[in-house]
Amino acid sequence: MEIGPGPGILTQGLAKQSKLVAIEYDERMMPAAQAYAPTAEIIFGDALLVDWSQILERLPKPVGIVSNMPYNITGPLLERVCQQANLIDRAVLMMQREVGDKILAKPGDRNRGALSVVMQATFDISLVSKVAPGCFSPPPKVDSIVLDFRPRSAPNQAALKLARQGFSQPRKTLLNNLSGVIAKEELTSRLADIGLHASIRPHELTYEHWVSLAEP
Question: Can you give the pTM of this predicted structure?
Answer without folding.
Answer: 0.93
